[in-house]
Structure formats: C-alpha cells, structure tokens
Amino acid sequence: IIDHSPALELLVDEHGTVCGATGVNRQTGDTWVANAGAVVIATGGCAFLSRALGCNVLTGDGHLMAAEVGAELSGMEFSNAYGLGPAFSSVTKSLFYNWATFYYKDGSPIEGAGSARGRSVIAKTLQTQPVFACLNRADDSIKSWMRTAQPNFFVSFDRQGINPFIQHFPVTLRLEGTVRGTGGLHVVSEDCATTVPGLYAAGDAATRGLICGGFTGGGSHNAAWALSSGFWAGAGAATFGRNARSSATRIALRTGGVALQGKGSHAPDSAEIIRAVQAELFPYERNWYRRGDVLEDSLQRLDALWDRLRSGAC
Ligand SMILES: Cc1cc2nc3c(=O)[nH]c(=O)nc-3n(C[C@H](O)[C@H](O)[C@H](O)COP(=O)(O)OP(=O)(O)OC[C@H]3O[C@@H](n4cnc5c(N)ncnc54)[C@H](O)[C@@H]3O)c2cc1C
C-alpha cells in the first residue's frame, strides 16, 4: 500500500502486456514505480469532480491509464447518471425523494417531476429555473424510519435549519458519471480480464452492465459486485502474473501521454483544464439529453484539448 500516491500510468513489456504501474507521491512529488506480473484497475467510476457525495476522489484515472494501453470500454452510453440532492449540499442520496413533491419557485407543483421517474422533467426545468422539493408525502412512521435509515441525509438540512418535510428547499442534479452509471472497462472473461493482456478490472472501474443494465442506483448489488469482481480479478491477475514472472526478464515501458510527461515550458493549468472538461460534461443540455450533434461538438473540443495537453501546449 502506497498512501497519497495515485497511480497515473501503466507499464507494458515489449509485447504490450501490462507489467506494472507508476505514479506520484502527492506529499513529496516523487514518482514511484511498481513492477508486477499483472495489474488490477480498481479506481472506481468517474464523476469529474462534480462534488457528488463520495465521488470527488473518482477522477477516472484508471480508465485513462487502461485506455492508453488500448483497453476497450463498455456501456459508456450509460455514463451520464446524475444524483438528486439539495442544491446547498453534496448529499446525493436520492431514495427519500420517492416521498417528495417538486415545485416551481412560486410554489406550484411541477407536473411529471419525480425521483425514480420524472428526473428528466427536473433536468429540463433546471435548465431555465430553480426546482424545489418537499418530502411531504412521507407519513409519521416513514419520517422516523428515514432518520434512522440514513441519518446523514439530514445533516445538511439540520445545519441550515430546514425541515424538509414541510419546507420547500432547492434541489439540483449532480453528475455521478460512471459511479451510478454503469459504463467502464470491458470485461472479457470470468476472471475480469480486460481486452489487454495482464490487465484486470474490478468494482466501479469495470462495466456493470453485466449485473444491472444502464443505472446502478443504490443498493447492495454495487458493493456485491465490487467485492466479487475484486476477488475474481485478484485471482485472475495472480494466476496470470505467476506465469508472466516465470518467463525471461521483461522490459517495462511507460505508456502515459500526459500524466507524468511534464512536456512544455510550464506545467498545465489543471484548474483551467478541469473547468473546460466540466463545461462539456455537466450541462444537462449536453450530457443528460445527449444528441448526436451536441456530443460531436463537445468531442471536437475535448479532443483538441487532449491534443494540446499531449503536445505540452497548455
Ligand atoms: C451516494 C452513493 C450511495 C451509494 N450507496 C450504495 C449502497 O447503499 N449500497 C451499495 O452497495 N453501493 C452503494 N453505492 C455504490 C458503491 O459506493 C460503489 O459501487 C463501490 O464503492 C465501488 O467500490 P470500488 O472499490 O470499485 O470503488 P470506490 O469505492 O469508488 O474506490 C475507488 C478507490 O480508488 C481510489 N483511486 C482513484 N484513482 C486512483 C489512482 N489514480 N490511484 C490510486 N487510487 C485511486 C479512490 O481514492 C478510491 O478510494 C453508492 C454510491 C454513491 C455515490
């Protein structure tokens, strides 16, 4: 275990087989190298720093590293999950909105708006005006169950002095990307191998289309998949690694185009790059509704940004 030390690039041998990883220690700035018989990517999903609950460490590094060695992704049409929550907090726990009514600012109900069904109506309304919710469909027994079932749901309300059962509060939809969407690294066998020899995937980094279609939602299947696929991927990687290690001494080539390259006269402006990417990923009109021409437009800008980064021009 190397703490505070994100992995940023995979290493491959002369045949393109994955044989390790390299990264940086964020406290010292030193790089580290780990040679290995095989690698399991378990870096979670990607929510593009949207501040959705628990998601701000999930920046898709594993997907990038894997893509840079040629791994295929699967189910990425399901990478646009948005979590529903109060506009003033990061708590995107959505279950209790099944007991909510949604309102315009003037207090009139929004026809068709809902959490499980009707989020598109909320997204559409949010494009032009704020949306408010009130958990006024919960009876007393449900209310007391809610407090014990998910106490952290109420923390931000209590801090703001808002009673969500009687007061209208502003809500928003935060991108959760492939955290609650299901796209990820394509898994080609029961030991969770990817399309690249020596590379395995587990948990949210892998596609979850195999277990739950397009949207994972909440519930124990997510943790069950993380544990099960971790077990299978670990066993698969260990078997692969044992065989690889018994072969002749291997060379290890770096594969990253940007992360540790440090090209150009100055370090890239990370904040500016993050803003530019978020501007393509967050807006509902781009990522929620996903029209071909709009996606094409975004892709052109993102590809151009990536080319500039790779050439050290930004
Ligand atoms: C709001 C919310 C509620 C949820 N509720 C439930 C629930 O009730 N039940 C359930 O089963 N599931 C639930 N889930 C889903 C569940 O949290 C995930 O499916 C599960 O955590 C995935 O486990 P994982 O190990 O694949 O990834 P994660 O738990 O996301 O862990 C990935 C780890 O990789 C690390 N990492 C990222 N990049 C790098 C890098 N470059 N180098 C090194 N490390 C890196 C991250 O810091 C993180 O620690 C919920 C998810 C959300 C967002």
From TrEMBL:
<dbReference type="InterPro" id="IPR036188">
    <property type="entry name" value="FAD/NAD-bd_sf"/>
</dbReference>
<dbReference type="InterPro" id="IPR027477">
    <property type="entry name" value="Succ_DH/fumarate_Rdtase_cat_sf"/>
</dbReference>
<protein>
    <submittedName>
        <fullName>Putative reductase</fullName>
    </submittedName>
</protein>
